[in-house]
Amino acid sequence: MSATSNILVVGIGGQGVMTATEILAEAAIALGHDAKKTEVAGMAQRGGVVSSHLRFGPRVLSPQIAPGEADVLLAFEAAEGLRWRHMLRPGKIALVNDSRFVPPVVELGLFDYPDDPVGQMKAGGTHVVAFDATTIALDLGDIRLGNTVMLGAIADHLPFPADSLLACVLKRFEKKGARMVELNQKAFAAGRAAVGG
Amino acid sequence: MAAVMPAPAASRHLMSGNEAVARAVWEAGVKVAAAYPGTPSTEMLEVISTYPDVYAEWSVNEKVSLEVAIGAAYAGSRAFCCMKHVGMNVASDALMTLTLTGVVGGLVIAIADDVGLSSSQNEQDSRYWGRFAHVPVFEPADSQEAYEMTLAAFELSEQFQVPVILRMTTRINHVKSLVTVGERLVRVGPGFKKDPARYVMVPGNAGKRIPLMFKRDGELRAVAEQSPLNVIESGSDRRIGFIASGPAYMHVKEAFPNAPVLKLGFSWPVPFEKCRELAALVDQVVVVEEVEPLVETELKAQGMTVLGKDILPLQGELAPAVIKPIIARLLGENVPDSASTAVAAQIFPRPPTMCVACPHLGVYYTLSQVRNLNISGDIGCYTLGAGHPWQAMDTCVSMGASMGIALGMDKGRGEADKDKRIVAVIGDSTFLHMGMQGLLDMVYNKANVTVLLLDNRAVGMTGGQDNPGNGRDIYGEEAPRIDFVKLVEALGVKKERVHKVNPYELPVLFKTIRDEVKVPDVSVIITDQPCVLIKDYHKLKPYEVLDDKCTGCGNCLDVGCPAIHVTRRGKAVKASGREVDLAFVRIESSVCTGCGLCVQPCAPDAIQHYVPVSPIKLVKSGEVVA
Hints:
The structure holds two protein chains of two kinds. The model of chain A has no long low-confidence stretch (mean pLDDT 93). Chain A is α/β, with parallel strands linked by helices. In chain A, strands 2-3-1-4-5-6 form a six-stranded mixed sheet, sandwiched between helices. Chain A is built from eight helices and six strands. Chain A is globular and about 45 Å long. In chain A, helix 1 packs across helix 7 (162-173) and helix 6 runs antiparallel to helix 7 (162-173). Chain B is built from 18 helices and 24 strands. In chain B, the strands form seven sheets. Chain B has a seven-stranded mixed sheet with strand order 3-2-4-5-7-6-12, sandwiched between helices. In chain B, helix 4 links the parallel strand 4 (79-84) and strand 5. Chain B is 32% helix and 19% strand. Chain B is globular, with a radius of gyration of 28 Å. Chain B folds into four domains: 12-226, Rossmann fold, CATH 3.40.50.970; 230-330, Rossmann fold (3-Layer(aba) Sandwich), CATH 3.40.50; 359-527, 3-Layer(aba) Sandwich (Rossmann fold), CATH 3.40.50.970; 543-609, Alpha-Beta Plaits. The chains are: A alpha/beta, B alpha/beta. Chains A and B meet through helix 1, strand 2, helix 2, strand 5 and helix 3 of A and strand 8, helix 10, strand 20 and strand 21 of B. Strand 2 (34-40) of chain A pairs antiparallel with strand 8 of chain B, so a sheet runs across the interface.
C-alpha cells in the first residue's frame, strides 16, 4: 500500500454513503493521519449516484481517487459496486451490499438492471465479497443500522485496527442512549462477520 | 438554524471549505452575512447562521444579498455574501459600481464555481469578475486555505477599501479536510459617514472614482507580487514549471511532486514578476487552471511563452489522471498506463429523481397528459420534469427565465405553433428570486400564457431552505409570509385568472390547466402543497398494490414516483389487435407516504392502503400478540 490510503464508498443518495465516509475519515484523523473526503454527488438527495472518496496518510494533496487506485471499494448497492469496479486497484477487495435499488428509468423500461451485478464483477476479475447488509440490519430490528453494518464490513480491510473505527461509530450514538450504542455495536460486529472478518 | 457553541480556538476539525469559510467569517468579526442558496455555496450561510453575534439572512436573490452586504460595509461593519457562480451574474450590476465606491468595513464575496456542473445550468469562471470589476481574487486550494484566505481577504479589503472575491470551486466547497481554527475578533465599526462624492454614483462623482480604481489595480498587483499567498516551490525536475491555483495546485503537486510550481493564492491582479521568476527557473511553463485560460491569456499578453489550454481541457474538473498523460506527451515520454485494469461497466444511469410523494409529481403527470403545450421551465427540483416519464418541460435557461421565455414564445410563435398553448412552470423561490418581474412584463404586454407557480414552501433543490413564501427566516423563526395569490394579483393578473389548486387532486388540476390554457390571457395556477422533505409535510398511510387486481396497464408508472417498482412484464393483445406491453407493479410500502397520486390513474382499483402482513393486535393493556 502506498503512503496514501484510498477508500471509495459508493451507493445512491439517501443511503448514508457520505456519513459513513465521514466516520471513516474521523477514525483516520483520530490516528493522526491527514485526510480529505470528497464526493461526486450530483444531486445526492434525489436518488442519484453517490461516490465518496476518502484519502488519508501523512499528507493528502488531491482529494480524488484516480481510476485503479482505490485500496478498498465499499458499495452500498449491488449495481453501484459494478459501476465503480474500475476504480479498484488490481487485486484489491470490493465489499458489496447485495441489495438492489432499481431506479425509475429501469422501471419505465428505458434501461435494464444487470441480472447479476456481483457475478459480473467476479467474472471481470474483481475480488468481491458480497453480503446482505439490509437484511442484517432488519434482523437486528432497524433498517437504519445498515450503515453501521457496512462500516463493520470494511473494518478489517483498513490499515488501522477495527476497534478504532468502532469507537468513532459508537461516539456518534453516545447521546442517543445505551440501547443505540449496543445495537450499533451488534451491527458493526455483524458486518465484520458477514465478510468473514 | 439554532446557534451553537463555536469550537474553541486552536482546535482542529474536519471541515468542508464552506464550513471553514463560515468559521473565518465569524472569527473576522463580520456583522452581516447574506446569500441566496445555490449549490455548491449554500452551506456557508447555513453554518454562519449557527454562530452567535452575526446577522445572517437568506436574501431573495444574489443581487439583493450583495446590496445588503454593501450597506453593512458602507456602515463600517464587516460584511460577507456568497453565491454560486451564476448568482454573480445576477449580483454583478451592484458589483460593477461597488468597485468605484469601495467599502469601509471589509467585504468578502465568496463565489462557488460548480466546475463539472454537478448541479448547474452552465460552467463559469468567476475569476473574470476580478478582472472585469477590478477587484482582487483569492483562490484557496483546501479547507485550511479557505479559512486563512477568508481572514486575509477581510484584511486586504479594509486596507484597500475594496471588495475581495474568494473564488471557490465544488472541490473546495464540498471537500472536507482538517482546519485549525482561531479566536473571534471583536470589531467595532465606525458607522456610516455621509460622503456623496463617494457613495452617490452619478456620472460627475463616478467619473472621478474611475482613475482611483485603476491606481488601486497597480497597488494591488504590487501586493500580489509580494504576497505569501503566491509562492514558488522549487523542484528538482526543471523541465516544466507549473503555475496553478485552487484545486489545480493540489492535482499538480500530486502528479508532479518534483516540478517547480508557482502556487497562486492571490491570483488577480496576476503577479507577472512572480510568473517570470518561475519561468526563469524552468525550460517550459504550463499554466494549470480551472476553467478558463485567464492567467494564461494575461501571461501571453505580457509576451511570455507559456502553455495552458492549448493542451489542457477547457471544460470540467482537472485531476492528476487528466494532467499526467498530457504532460507526458508534451515531454515526449510514454503515456503512463492507468492503474486500472478493469474497464468501467456500462450500466444504466441513475439520474436524480423526484422524491416519493413529491407534489410536483402531480403537476408533471398532469402536464404530460395535456396535449399541444409548449412548456417554458425554470430552475429548481421541478426542472426534473423535463426527464422521464413526464418529459413535460421544454426549456431551462436561468433563474426566472420561464416567464420572459414564455412571453417570447407567445409573441414569436410561428405558423407551426399558432395553435400551441404556452405554459410556464416556476417554483415559489425562483419566482420570488427573479420571476416576479417577468410575470409583470407578461401582464403589461398582454401575453397568452398559463403560469404554474409551484409553491412547495421551500428552496427545495438546495435542501429545503426557508424563503419569504414559507413564513420562516434563516433561524427557523417566524417571519412575514408572502401571500402568492395577493402578490400575483398585485402584479396585475386578473382575479378570475388566479387559481390555487392542491396538486394531489389530479382531476381538479387537470381541469384547471385545460380550462386556463384556452383563455387568451395571463393565468396563474398556484399549487400549494409542501416539499416532502420539510417539516410542513405530513405523511399519510402508505399504499400497496393488490397483486391479483393489477392488470399491468402501467398507468401508475406514468406518475413517476420512485416507490413504484415493476415486478414482472408481459404482453397483451387488445380487441383492436394491437399488442401492448404490460408492467405489473408493487409499491415499496416502507417508503410510500400515502400521497395517493398513483391511486387516481389506476383503472382496476388495485392500489389500496397497505395492511401489514402480520397485523399487531392489542389484546389487552400491555400485552401484544402478533
